[in-house]
Amino acid sequence: MADWPPSAGPNVHIQSYWRFRDLLEAAPDGILEVERDGTIVLMNAAAERIFGYKREELLGQYIEVLVPESLKRRHIGHRTEYAENPVTRPMGTGLELFARRKDGSNLPVEISLSPIRSPQGSRVIAIVRDISNRKQAEAQINAMHQEFTAELAAKNQQLEIRNREIERANRLKSEFLASMSHELRTPLHTIIGFADLLAEGLKGTLNPDQKRFVGHIQRDARHLLELINDVLDLSKIEAGHLELHPETFNAADVAGETIDNLRPQAVGKQITFVESFDANVMITADRVRLKEILYNLVSNAIKFTPEKGQITVVCSEQTDGVFFAVTDTGIGIDPAEHQAIFDKFYQVGSTTRGIREGTGLGLAITKSLIEMHGGKIWVESTPGQGSRFQFVFPRAESVSHAETAVEPDHRSERVVLVGMGQADEDVSAFLKQKGYDVVASEAEQLVATCRTLRPVAVVLDLPTPGAESWRVLQDIRAHDDTAQIPILALATDQNQSTLVSLGANAVVPKPVDPALLVEKLSNVIRRLPGEPPRILLVDDDAEARELLHETLRSAGLLTVSAAGGKQALEILARSPISAVIVDLVMPEMSGIELILRMRQNPAFAQLPVIVLTAKEMDLNDIEVVGRHASAVFLKAVPWKKDFLTQLYELLQQVTKA
User: Fold this and answer.
1) Between 467 and 640, where is the model more confident?
2) Residue 351, CB half-sphere, CA atoms under 13 Å: how many?
3) Do 633 and 611 contact (CB within 8 A), yes or no?
4) What confidence tier does 349 reach under pLDDT thresholds 50, 70, 90?
5) 193-201 contacts: CB < 8 A, separation 24 or more?
6) 368, 233 in Cβ contact below 8 A?
């Protein structure tokens, strides 16, 4: 200390001095008192500790002795400026300050300056805080932060790489699913189609062994197709790629179509259907998926119902939505399994009952599809008494639904009627009343009669179904001079699809509704005037084209084939075409591109286009097809009957236009 203690003075001054000294020495920060010229005149113990000097070594020295060598000259200038305007303030605001120890090392510090007045004149009190520990901690924190940041950046990079890998895997999975849906379904579609043609006897009568072998092919191929469809559907559901395409329609129509498609399976087991449908049950849903749901439930009912059993299908409107139920008189399900049957891959123990196993995916997919629509499904079942699967879809919005009946234009034209019995006499009388020239013919003489009379149509009422009784229809289609004559068949519900596949242009269900008979007869007569329609088949798969050719030829239609979109455009440019059937997946030019190029050409802008594909369509495909195609059929589901019906309707529209 300098200038202290005073040599004499009142007792109070002595006490103040010692109190000040105690405070000064106890302070944790270094305290220096500096003259205006920079001379150190006072310091405390903390300053000794911080700078490493003893008190007597610093007192009388210039303050610059505590300043790093590189900053001494600049510090003198700062000190002089401060002396001109001394105020209490921190030193070097915003800067990192360093002081110099006795050993020559530098240390980080914070410094506060305060001017004071003493008996010796103006001086400055400098309070110096050693922040080495703080800086060291900050450095450690900063190092940890940098390390964490670097680690986080590395993790983020790894995450980005994994995300890209996941995206790539998802893309590859989607591409795989799309490829598999086409590559697996297309050959199966062809196998099933050719097997159907053989079974229908279009290439000659099969002996019993051949019929049995073809039946095995049909049954196993359809089973394999169902398995493929289940696996692909489940993969899309789990990946979140399955999209619904809702529309408003009559739910009872879809239920009826499903039963019609499955009726041949039920007939083989002598199972009867009971239909309980409310009229005009409007629903907003994905029509294809609703049909898939009903198909799964009804086909399961057929599988697990013994011979001569009964299946009841209900479709009704209720307060909370549209209600469906499929009830069978089958083997039933143990109550302990009522929840488990909706799990993936779960199979009710049925091998001992001789029932063919599936994948255990059908009900899991059914439940997922119903829930995607906002609905729910549940089951009631008792072993040995049967099962009742019930589900509800939300109610459709109010939809205006009206149909306008148009009185057909009847003309007096010659019609050959083949049939027997009172019912056919009634049909003949009614047609004559409407102005038709009706000529009766025996089935064996039908081809000769048609060659002689050249009728505008044949009305065919055949007895109990069988290859021999239906041979007459095939005979007409087998001769060039009679192949194009429209045929209207009268048949029971279970025979309609077979008659269409054998070449009937339209079918009227028995018992015959006279008004419907005249309407359909008028339609088939107007449908194919003069030159028969030429249908352009566009598919890169030669076997698929051959199958379509045989199917359409047996129905009295001419076909022209193209192996791709470019060839199809060339054929369209030089040949009159009535309609185009196109696959979507083809090299060089896809079916989508072909459709768009057709619609851009005024000559083909209104030409009917039917898409027949095994591809799982994405949103872009659906948008283009929905806007520019006349109809869409998937090879993944039974398509032949509805396909021919739709094609005839489109040809009729073209003829009217």
Assistant:
1) 640
2) 3
3) yes
4) low
5) 193/547, 193/551, 193/640, 194/543, 194/547, 194/550, 195/221, 196/501, 196/640, 197/547, 197/550, 197/551, 197/554, 200/498, 200/501, 200/502, 200/554, 201/467, 201/470, 201/471, 201/474
6) no
Q: How confident is the model at residue 120 (pLDDT cuts 50, 70, 90)?
A: confident
Average pLDDT taken over every residue of the chain:
81
Q: What is the pLDDT of residue 2?
A: 46
Identify the sign of the CA torsion 359, 363, 366, 368. Answer: negative
DSSP for 70-139 reads: GGHHHHHHHHHHHHHS---EESSTTS-EEEE-TTS-EEEEEEEEEEEEETTEEEEEEEEEE-HHHHHHHH
Q: Residue 566's closest CA among 583, 585, 588?
A: 588
Return the bridge partners of 387, or none.
Answer: 381
CA angle 635, 641, 643 (to 5 degrees): 60
- Residue 649, H or E segment: helix 640-656
| Helix (H/G/I), strand (E/B), else coil: 442 | coil
**Radius of gyration over every alpha carbon of the chain, rounded to an integer in angstroms:** 47
Q: Is 333 exposed, middle or buried (0-12, 13-18, 19+ CB in 10 A)?
A: buried
Q: Pull the structure tokens for residue 440.
A: 């009766």
Q: How many CB atoms sit inside 10 A of residue 364's CB?
A: 21
Model pLDDT for residues 272-325, shown as the tens digit of each residue: 999 999 888 889 898 889 998 999 999 999 989 999 999 999 999 888 889 999
The DSSP output letter for 340 is: G
- How many C-beta atoms surround the C-beta of residue 362 within 10 A? 25
Q: How confident is the model at residue 88 (pLDDT cuts 50, 70, 90)?
A: confident
| Amino acid in the structure at residue 554 | S
- Residue whose structure tokens are 């068949």: 489
Tokens of 484: 């194009």
Give the other-Cβ count within 10 Å of 19's Cβ. 10
- pLDDT band for position 352 (cuts 50, 70, 90): very low
Q: How many whole angstroms separate alpha carbon 583 and alpha carbon 568?
A: 12
Token pair of 341, please? 């049957």
Paired tokens of 90: 């921190």
Give the type of residue at 148: F
SS3 content of the chain, % helix, strand, coil (to 5): 50, 20, 30
3-state DSSP assignment of residue 598 = helix
